[in-house]
Amino acid sequence: MTSVVAQQDGGGTGGGTGGTGSGTYTFSSHPRALQGRKKYRQEDQCTAGYYGNIMYDRRVVRGNTYAQHTLPVTAQPDPIEIQRQQEIQRRAVARRRAKAQLRTTTPLPLDGRIHIEVQTELYLEELSDRIEEVDVDTQTDAFLDKPATPLFIPGKSGKDVATQIEEGELFDFDIEVKPMLEVLVGKTIEQALLEVLEEEELANLRALQRDFEEIRNAELAEVQRMEERERRYREEKKHRMIQQQEVLNKEKETADKIAARAFAQNYLADLIPIVFSTLRDNGYFYDPVERDVENVFLPWLMGEVKKSIEKKILGRTMLDILLRDVENNRSQMFRDSQPPAKI
What's the DSSP call for residue 56? Predict the structure, then answer.
């Protein structure tokens, strides 16, 4: 009999057959086989796990593969791509850690108690740490060696018919070998003549080829000489054209310089007097004594005159103030000395 004992940790379990006041329960049932399977695995069961549908294999490429970009074996990996993959992996690990921290777990057991796995499913399953095993032996005689398979001999069918032929009735060597020798000798002589003719023809072709190569080399040398002469003519013509262009440029430059010099002389003929008169009118040419008198003496003189006038104005103002005060005092004294009028 197999029994399962579990300790309650705050939640009840279903399927218990008995309980006690200490908080534990015991479940028992008759022994039974977990699965109706045979003792030894069959051959098809051993090899079935190694096969699968390749349409669900991630290693199988689907679709058109012509446009796929494949790197050569000797190509170096992109460091930016490696860094991006590492960053993605780090983010995934951090995300999993965060999910693991946020996942609710079983609270820690109280002092003196431990957690034990308890079945909470609708149908309980028998649990056992040790699998029940039974050894059964059977002693049998050794098998005899299989005898050798006899050769297959098909059965005889049809009728046997024989014909007797005497010596010399079907074949005479001296007579039969004559045409064969004639053919062999004729073919040999014909082949030899063909080889001789072929050798003579090859010799004639080699002689013609040598003559052709000599003529071709002479023509190539003549063509190279003419090309070199034409190249020298082109270079000389180009050099002469450059020289003539330089002469024309120098003549034009000289003419431009002469025209510019004449124009400048004509333009600057009246420019100097006009410039001097303009500068004189604007005051750039002046008499030092006159400029000193205008800039130094006259401003000083005007300042001294202004100061003298201000002093005179100040004296007159003070005199007017004194006269007004004296007049006011005399008027007050005169009013005080008059007797009051009688009514």
Answer: G
